[in-house]
Design a protein that fits this description.
889 residues, Rossmann fold, eight-stranded mixed β-sheet, 19% strand, elongated
């Protein structure tokens, strides 16, 4: 029995594992329900013992020979877990315990436990949904809620429900707060349109057994060591260098104050390299090791075994779980994490540096107390600790979903419909992913995988790169396509900083030369894997796979073509200089995003070329391989690019090519209609020509847009038309419907109706400017109302003097009559309009036209203020009438 053998080995080594106590409960739960959630803190041995217990259970239950597949989120965790189990059984890896990661497999005919990356299990499920020869699946570190892990859980649950009810399924978590995982294990569909079945219930599904192991409680001292005030917050991939210096100083203090090895948790490889260098320079008496996804295998192995001297292991979040780093009694936590972030509107994905969550901080701290009393030094204050988010966001909420959406489409469940996902896929992110996949020909209009989409999904890389691999092999040859895609897919091979580091071709040539043997080794291994996959895909790819036969091209053209095949929306053209030609260090990308080159770019428009391939540094076109998302509204930053020509851009980014008749209003309030035939590559205009006979409906739409921008002034209304509008507004104010609303906003909204004849005959601004606005406004009036307008809102009023005076209706609630006082002598009361509903405000003027009084109640004016006005004005204007009784006229 494998588990018995392992327990005996542990007993001899004097290293008991608490998870062993709950293995009988786990096996019993699986025999009863076929699935279970195993919760065990780091250090309890769940990763080591649970797979062996499952293998033994399969033997006892008559499924001898069937494998236990264990998934880990990272390659380094896969190797470490397999090595640990094999060593307990007294074997080498590849015997009873084996592993498989991308590009490497160590298994044999005797293998009973196979440890794989979660992504590899997804590929295997697509090829063999029944998982032939597999008796149990254990999804380790499910609490991390990585996107691949969520998908794998949903697919395996689907397999159990439809094809393999005998398949045992365990999700293992280091934290107990995992309700979404437990619901998914039970087969419950998530709330929301992406996961809900017609008539389904998100709480449906049987209860899933929960098996909990407890860890020995070793004392853990928590020390807060915040950095000096004034440090910049993380932004994108940027971490303030002063924080890294503070972390290195905290490590030195920990070495002096506490025994044991020190584990330093940092967000990524750059930060690990910087802190490692600082600690190594200050403390030559200790061994400083790096542990992250790109660390060479020999160095990973060294970090995972005890050393002869004290060690400082600088690790990424890979050390948060899955792994045991022996000898660690102190954890120094920088308090940062890297998470995927996607700008779905611009189609740009990347990583952001964020504050660690409380749950992750607890996980990291636990590494110090796995083997005995420990200390965690947190490089933030106790006050900041209380403000940390309780747990990290599930990756599905922030990541680019293109790969997941393609996987689900290939599975036959577009958008995850009908699958027991822990959380529903966000609708906006799904829509953006489907658009990106459809543009590349990988999904059809119904969201189902095309033949090309299925072939791309089988490549085992991001769909964008998979498309570039398959189509690039036909265009530039298998070897070169695989080499460029390997360069794009392996983290850390591009955009490392420094002059000329954004030159894809220069980086490609450096790898070929072997300037950095470790990097070249990683790259060559991926190239071999991709080429092997290409040959396998050739047997199953659709016969009508698009793309021309391989042509004789140089490295520059080949690199640009493959990059553009992967990222057609990142094909960029240099923005024009003020003089009209190329020359600025800014690009407009086909996706519509602005981008700028880094200082010292190999593609700078001025100065000497700094990259070996930069023979055309002043060229207009680039294929952008690596770009930082815009932060705070700025342009994106190009980290790596390859040269391209317009012809190459047309060939590689063909799905974005459009030719359209465009009739639009351009130029804001002073603009006009522009009609042209335009050829575009996404947002980039390639060619344009005037459109002689634009469609009438497009012209009318453009003219209406101009009206919205420029307002009614575009019609050049006459003074009479404006007075008519004001009179109509006055009647509308007093009587309401059916009198029309003639406010500017209402008229603009109703322009297609009352301006229909003018719009039908106009082609440009000048045509609208000739509109008889008064006549057009009268179209708004039904006949009975039109006949009464002059009665209700007369343009002029007859005065007692016999003269007629114009009314000003600028204020619809208070029309104004401005007249000399002598002309209204004899009027007992002021005039009213609109059937007597609206009083007229009378502005009484002197014989010289100067204001004397303003009143809406003329009778009150005659009885009161008039006497004083008369007294003051008689002497000044003796020739004009100022009767004592103004009502006598």
């Amino acid at each position: 029995m494998l588990l018995t053998t392992a327990e005996e080995a542990l007993a001899r080594a004097g290293t008991p594992l608490p998870a062993s106590a709950v293995m009988p409960d786990l096996v019993a739960a699986l025999r009863s329900r076929g699935r279970a959630l195993l919760v065990a803190p780091p250090g309890t041995g769940k990763t080591t013992l649970a797979p062996l217990a499952l293998a033994d259970a399969l033997d006892v239950d008559g499924a001898a020979g069937r494998r236990v597949v264990v998934t880990e989120p990272r390659r380094v965790s896969v190797r470490a877990a397999a090595q640990r189990m094999a060593s307990l059984l007294g074997e080498d890896v590849g015997g009873l315990v084996g592993y498989a990661v991308r590009g490497e497999r160590r298994t044999g005919p005797r293998t009973r436990v196979e440890v794989v990356t979660t992504g590899l299990l997804l590929r295997r499920l697509q090829r063999d949904p029944e998982l032939a020869g597999v008796g149990a699946v254990l999804l380790d570190e499910a609490h991390e809620r990585a996107l691949d892990a969520d998908l794998a859980l949903a697919l395996v649950v689907d397999v159990r429900e439809v094809l393999r009810p005998d398949l045992l399924l365990v999700a293992a978590s280091a934290t107990p707060d995992q309700a979404p995982l437990r619901r998914a294990l039970a087969g419950a569909r998530p709330a929301g349109p992406a996961g809900r079945l017609p008539g389904g219930d998100e709480d449906a599904g049987e209860e899933v057994p929960l098996v909990v192991a407890t860890a020995p409680v070793h004392p853990l001292e928590v020390v807060h060591d915040p950095p000096p005030a004034g440090l910049d917050l993380p932004r994108g991939l940027r971490v303030d260098p002063r924080l890294l210096e503070h972390v290195a100083a905290a490590v030195r203090r920990a070495l002096d104050a506490h025994p044991g090895d020190v584990l330093v948790v940092l967000p990524g490889a750059r930060e690990i390299a910087r802190v490692s260098a600082l600690v190594r320079a200050a403390r030559p008496d200790v061994d400083v090791l790096a542990l992250h996804g790109r660390t060479p295998r020999a160095e990973q192995d060294a970090a995972l075994r005890a050393g002869r001297r004290r060690r400082v292991v600088c690790a990424s979040a890979v050390a948060e779980s899955s792994l045991t780093v022996p000898g660690v009694r102190v954890v120094v936590d920088a308090g940062l994490a890297r998470v995927p972030r996607t700008d779905h509107a611009r189609g740009l994905a990347g990583l952001d540096t964020v504050r660690v969550s409380q749950a992750s901080a607890v996980q990291r701290a636990g590494r110090a107390a796995r083997e005995g009393p420990g200390v965690v030094v947190r490089c933030w204050s106790a006050a900041d600790d209380a403000r940390l988010p309780p747990r990290p966001e599930p990756e599905v909420a922030t990541a680019d979903l293109a790969g997941a959406v393609l996987d689900l489409a290939c599975w036959g469940s577009p958008r995850g419909e009908g699958l027991a996902l822990p959380d529903a896929l966000p609708a906006g992110a799904v829509a953006a992913a489907e658009q990106a996949l459809a543009v590349r020909g990988l999904l059809d209009a119904d969201g189902r995988a095309t033949g090309l989409g299925r072939a791309v999904a089988g490549t085992g890389v991001d769909p964008r790169l998979g498309r570039a691999l398959l189509l690039g092999a036909r265009a530039v040859g298998e070897r070169r396509a695989a080499e460029v895609v390997a360069l794009l897919s392996e983290d850390g091979l591009l955009g490392r900083g420094g002059p000329g580091s954004d030159d894809v071709v220069a980086a490609w040539r450096a790898l070929r030369r072997g300037d950095d043997p470790a990097r070249t080794g990683r790259w060559e291994q991926e190239v071999r894997r991709l080429r092997s996959g290409l040959r396998a895909q050739e047997r199953g790819s659709p016969a009508d796979l698009p793309g021309a036969a391989a042509a004789r091209t140089g490295d520059e053209e080949a690199a640009g073509h493959v990059v553009a095949l992967a990222h057609p929306e990142r094909v960029g053209r240099r923005r024009r200089s003020v003089a009209g030609g190329p020359g600025r260090d800014e690009l407009l990308l086909a996706g519509g995003t602005g981008a700028r080159l880094v200082p010292g770019s190999a593609w700078a428009a001025t100065g000497a070329a700094s990259g070996p391939s930069a023979t055309e540094v002043r060229q207009d076109w680039l294929a952008v391989a690596l770009v930082d998302r815009p932060v705070g509204g700025t342009d994106a930053v190009v980290r790596a690019a390859a040269p391209l020509t317009e012809a190459g851009a047309r060939a590689a980014a063909g799905p974005l090519l459009t030719t359209a008749r465009e009739v639009a209003w351009e130029g804001g309030t002073g603009g006009d209609v522009v009609a042209r035939r335009v050829e575009r590559l996404g947002a980039l205009v390639l060619a344009e020509a005037p459109l002689a006979d634009p469609p009438r409906e497009l012209l009318e739409a453009a003219l209406l847009e101009g009206l919205q921008r420029a307002g009614l002034a575009l019609l050049a209304p006459s003074e009479g038309a404006e007075r008519l509008r004001q009179r109509l507004a006055a009647v509308r104010h007093a009587l309401g419907d059916p009198w029309p609303d003639v406010s500017c906003g209402a008229l603009l909204a109703a322009a297609p109706t009352w301006l229909a004849p003018e719009l039908a005959g106009a082609r440009r601004r000048a045509d609208l400017a000739r509109t008889d606005v008064a006549g057009a406004l009268r179209r708004l009036l039904p006949w009975p109302q039109a006949a009464r307008l002059d009665e209700l809102a007369p343009e002029r009023l007859a005065l007692p003097s016999g003269r007629g005076a114009r009314l000003d209706y600028a204020d619809p609630a208070a029309p104004v009559l401005a007249v000399r006082l002598q002309e209204v002598l004899g009027w007992q009361a002021g005039p009213r309009v609109v059937d007597g509903r609206t009083p007229v405000v009378v502005h009484l003027l002197s014989p010289a036209g100067r204001p004397l009084a303003v009143t809406a109640d003329l009778a009150s004016f005659w009885r009161g203020p008039y006497a004083q006005v008369r007294a003051e004005m008689r002497g000044r204007y003796p020739k004009h009438a100022w009767p004592a009784d103004p009502l006598d006229g």
